[in-house]
Write a structure and sequence with these properties.
Elements: H1 2-9, E1 27-33, E2 36-43, E3 46-53, H2 66-74, E4 76-81, H3 98-111, E5 118-123, H4 126-136, E6 141-147, H5 157-174, H6 181-201, E7 211-216, H7 224-238, E8 244-249, H8 256-259, H9 261-275
Parallel strand pairs: 3-4, 3-5, 5-6, 6-7, 7-8
Antiparallel strand pairs: 1-2, 2-4
Helix pairs in contact: 1-6, 2-9, 3-4, 5-6
Length: 276
């Protein structure tokens, strides 16, 4: 359910942080990944490297207000990127494939020479990519921050069925909409939703990678049933290992990066302190 919901929420406006920060302008590199180009935007700095992965329906510009603040406060190298079909990256036809998306990020980081001391910050849909990527390369990461992100525990048979019923009319309308990037991805996600969700429900986060789990006070859902299931799933995820921390972003919608950027900044800076 949340995978589809994140696309709809991703159509919102990016708000300014209101914080002045001085940081070098990022450079853009187009990197080949299995026959298509993915755009990576790199702000120079030192280790650990902070990689920001936006939610569904968003490209790297989602982080435009937060990235320079993180660069200024931490001095770390900052990497954002555009998933396939967004920003400056090539589009990939067919249903959305989380493993292809994971490979795109992995291939980009390898091409940039970034395969150690990474802090991965993942919002919404990007939690699925984070789960598979840390599972494949746990030695790359000193930690991760999951920002109202998808976690395996949420995708039970009941939630999958509820999502399919709830979003069936929305998807029907989306197919009739002008084919914007977000509308196309919404349709692509729907085509692989059940299969991808059932597989993701079985995925596990590597115990060696610490993670801060940030959940918005509102959650992404209007339904109390779904909102409570969302909170419960994240608490279960956080309780699975001693190196995980659960935090509620008070007074925040799903758009935590703009409603409560301070919560994300603190989670990242605390993680950097522990990693040194």
């Amino acid at each position: 359910m949340h995978r589809v919901r994140s696309i709809l929420l991703g159509l919102g406006t990016v708000l300014a942080l209101g914080v002045a920060a001085q940081a070098a302008a990022p450079s853009t590199k187009l990197i080949d990944s299995n026959g298509h180009k993915i755009a990576f935007h790199v702000t120079p700095g030192h280790l650990p490297v902070i990689v920001l992965d936006a939610g569904g329906g968003n490209d790297s510009s989602y982080w435009n207000s937060l990235a320079p603040v993180l660069a200024s406060q931490t001095g770390s190298e900052i990497i954002t990127y555009d998933r396939a079909g967004f920003g400056q990256s090539d589009e990939v036809k067919g249903p959305w494939d989380v493993h292809s998306a994971t490979a795109d990020l992995a291939n980009g980081l390898k091409a940039l020479g970034v395969t150690r001391k990474i802090i991965l910050v993942s919002h919404s849909l990007a939690g699925e990519i984070a789960t598979y990527l840390t599972g494949e390369h746990p030695d790359w990461f000193v930690g991760a921050v999951m920002v109202d992100a998808n976690v395996p525990q949420f995708y039970t048979n009941e939630e999958i069925a509820r999502a399919q019923a709830l979003y069936k009319p929305i998807l029907a309308k989306a197919k009739q909409m002008p084919q914007s990037q977000s509308a196309r991805q919404l349709v692509q996600l729907s085509e692989s939703f059940e299969e991808t969700s059932r597989a993701f429900h079985k995925a596990t986060w590597p115990r060696s990678v610490p993670v801060v789990v940030i959940v918005s006070a509102q959650t992404p859902f209007e339904s109390p049933t779904d909102a409570n299931a969302w909170r419960a799933a994240h608490k279960q995820f956080a309780a699975a290992a001693s190196n995980r921390q659960y935090i509620t972003a008070e007074k925040s919608s799903h758009d935590v990066a703009h409603d409560r950027p301070d919560v994300i900044i603190k989670a990242v800076t605390d993680m950097i302190s522990r990693a040194r």
